[in-house]
Amino acid sequence: MTAKSKKNTITFSENIVGVTGGIGSGKSSAVSFWSGRGAGEFIDADRVCSQLLEPGEKGWLALRDRFGNQYFKKDQRLDRQLLRNTIFADGKLRSQVNDVIHPLAREEIYRIVQNISSNKNNVLFFVEVPLLYEAKWEDDFGRVIVVYASPSRCVERIMKRDNVSRNEAEEAIAAQGQLADKALKADHVVDNSGSLFDTFLQLIHLERLLEDLKN
User: Fold this and answer.
1) 16 is a domain residue
2) 14 dihedral zone (left: phi>0; alpha: psi -120 to 50; beta)
3) 86 plus 54 within the same structural domain
């Protein structure tokens, strides 16, 4: 598949599926379920970004070049909490950081896919990307899956998982935009608002539908 964005020079292939959703919607649980069934190879974009921000790595170097020592500790490690809190409140800074990190993450994901593909045939890749639409990566994948859950369910999960207040959970959801809007753009939607059994049935069915993407 040829990516539509003129800024992207890398071409992802049809057998790469993007999995996204919202905070508390259960996208990581969906990916874990598929992983347990051996449905494909899995790449976590957040983990890729985290590795890129280790001292001396490409993302770390790029942020230091862009912002100097402002978001770094005395031991030269990135102050992730400070940066996270700052970009949460500053949309302009968030865009600047994303402009630095997203292209590097995309290149690294592509490298991982190429390395695995060189040793395996007939492979389906699932790439979990929390900010897939925000990064404008939707045209990079053979299919995009949105794991959806009702706002009330997302709030409950965030409160339980992160031990935060209802107000904090609602603010976190609001910062990511409307999950329903993402669902309407997707090729496939998994409704994770109900029981685990209902969700698992959807995931198994969807796994079968994606078989045609394997190369």
Assistant:
1) yes
2) alpha
3) yes
